[in-house]
Design brief:
The protein is mainly beta. Helices cover about 0% and strands about 50% of the residues. The chain contains no helices and 10 strands. The strands form 2 sheets. The protein has a 6-stranded mixed beta sheet, with no helix packed on it. A 4-stranded antiparallel beta sheet has the order 1-3-8-7, with no helix packed on it. The radius of gyration is 13 Å and the shape is globular. It starts with a strand and ends with a strand.
Length: about 120
Amino acid sequence: QVQFVESGGGLVQAGGSLRLSCAASGSIISINTIGWYRQPPGKQRELVAAINSGDNTRYADSAKGRFTISRDNAKNTVTLQMNSLKPEDTAVYYCNTRFSLWGARSGGSWGQGTQVTVSS
């Protein structure tokens, strides 16, 4: 099973940008859908964005217009470009596989994630 390592998080002021990267331990070309998730402090983990093998995407309402997900099968990476960040985007961000854009998560254990902190 492919494992993911997330990176790119940090501390940024509101309105700023961050680019998160999710590096897979193996090939992602056969993985239908990969999603970025986040877990804000004291809250449940939620889906932020997902991308499938056809480069179709899905975004949470909170991410639409601000975040862009992309995948590079040659580099086995999935990237989340986050612009116009808000304090409510503060969370630990993770990636994992899904059965489809609108289906359930299909992956196993979670990685360590990458912390994003947005100051007001």
